[in-house]
Design a protein that fits this description.
Blueprint lengths: L2 H17 L10 H4 L6 E3 L3 E12 L3 H9 L8 H8 L3 E7 L4 H7 L10 E6 L3 E19 L2 E21 L3 E22 L9 E12 L5 E5 L3 E7 L7 H6 E3 L6 E12 L12 E3 L5
Antiparallel strand pairs: 1-13, 2-4, 2-12, 3-10, 5-6, 6-7, 7-8, 7-9, 10-12, 11-12
């Protein structure tokens, strides 16, 4: 092909390219195949949690009996269920609405009003749930690996480390790990993760107490839309981890209170809808 013919072909192709508009894009093009329609962007995975702590006098019927009558404790594996039980803890999964007596506590007004906490973070991250306020000294009877032993703590507070991951088509897998933070506040230096194997390490100063993570008592459960996890204690198990985390003395009184933790989870965040199905956001194809 001589130079004049080649120039003519290129001119025709260029003119054809300039006349293409968005409706001329092939439906089986690469951009059209992303998400099944026009070019689309999938939002990052995020988990949304709603957390409420209900409190009533010790052995109150609503929290000690009624709530647990609708909780499926078999949703927890037998091994974990036993480990929790011998440490004065109990855990279950509730599907559907809460009993009316429990709803009344959750939706109380005035001085008994409960303000649920809301957490939203990337899939795989965690939140810290505070349960037992700092106390100068406490001695707990912990049952680990089939052996019971007393353990004293100073300046101790009780927590649950709660992590969340996507599971299946619509579920969120929650993992609860009880922790005791204790002792004096100490300063330490930790390395930040670099972008690559050869990136220079950066260090950051951290302040905090010693953290005893009771991983042998970690419990996982998959939550579907409309379900809630409930965690509480066996109030008769005094000095246990359960009574430490879920009972407390009422302010300005010597009355003992019993508490339960309720957690709802869903797939949420920017670009996603409440039922957990990712929303795909269309973008204009390039000209």
């Amino acid at each position: 092909m001589n130079r004049k013919a080649l120039a003519l072909v290129l001119a025709v192709v260029a003119m054809a390219g300039c006349t293409l508009n968005r409706s001329d894009l092939r439906k089986d093009s690469f951009l059209a195949r992303i998400g099944g329609g026009g070019g689309q962007v999938i939002a990052p995975k995020r988990c949304a949690l709603r957390v409420a702590i209900l409190s009533r006098p010790i052995r109150d019927d609503a929290l000690n009996n009624v709530l647990w009558s609708v909780a499926d404790e078999q949703a927890i594996t037998p091994e974990v269920q036993h480990a929790l039980e011998v440490n004065g803890l109990r855990m279950g999964l509730i599907a559907g609405e809460l009993p009316a007596a429990v709803e009344a506590i959750l939706n109380a007004t005035g001085p008994n009003r409960i303000e649920p906490s809301h957490f939203e973070f990337p899939d795989g991250e965690h939140a810290m749930i505070s349960l037992a306020e700092s106390t100068p000294e406490v001695s707990l009877l912990l049952n680990q690996d089939g052996r019971a032993s007393g353990k004293p703590y100073k300046d101790a507070s009780g927590w649950f480390r709660l992590s969340a991951n996507y599971e299946g088509a619509s579920g969120v897998k929650l993992r609860f790990v009880p922790e005791i933070h204790h002792g004096p506040v100490q300063r330490s230096f930790g390395a930040l993760q670099g972008n690559g194997s050869y990136s220079p390490k950066e260090f950051v100063q951290k302040e905090g107490q010693q953290e005893d993570s009771l991983r042998d008592l970690a419990a996982s459960v998959v939550v579907q839309p409309g379900q809630a996890v409930v965690i509480g204690c066996k109030p008769e198990s005094t000095r246990s981890l359960g009574s430490y985390l879920f009972t407390k003395t009422e302010a300005n009184s010597d009355r003992l209170l019993q508490r339960v933790l309720l957690v709802w989870a869903s797939r949420g965040g920017l670009g996603q809808n409440p039922n957990g199905t990712p929303s795909l956001v269309p973008v204009e194809p390039p000209k």
